[in-house]
Input
Amino acid sequence: MRTTILLFAFLTFFLQVKSQDSEVEIYLMQNNSIVQGKLLQSSDDSIRIMVDSVTTLAFAKSELEGKELPVSKEVNKFRKKLMRNESKEIRNSFPGIYQIRNRETTKGKIMVGITSLGLIGLISSGVVFVVILTTIPGLYGTLVALVKSLIVFATSTAFLGVSSGWSTGDKFKTIEKKVKNRYYYRGKFTSSNPIPQYELSWKH
Output
């Protein structure tokens, strides 16, 4: 029974990986947009993707760069620019929101929770000071209130530091992986069929 469960888990993971591998993004450098689809065929000279149920597109590998194909200095520089610009756009976002939007819900919720605890703690440190000072008047009460509030403040700051650092590092890794795990098409793109393209929010 245990062997069956392990085998099932392995097959599920394998199928998920294969499914992810079949998803392809092609960045059209001509008009600064992205075409997404499922990889149907990859030969020595071209790749063919299915954009939707009726539309398939073929791209010559001689005009593609990225993923397993060689990357020129120009495209490499362009990818770095994409990473910088996308990082700027989400730099000030609340920790965890980017991950949730990126369908990493569990990780995102943990980050939101840690950040929320930190913010609540910062507010509570002031409340703790006032409550203790009211309860224990005099110099001794002031010292006790100061120590207790500083402990709460330091703990809250640590929570915020952890969530912020974790979120920032995770954002950069995700953006870097996304930018590097796509093809870049430098040729002219024309199509008689309307296909879904994803416009980016900045222009190069």
About this structure: The two ends are 56 Å apart (CA to CA). The helical segments are 2-22, 73-90, 97-101, 105-135, 138-180. The first strand starts at residue 23 and ends at 28.
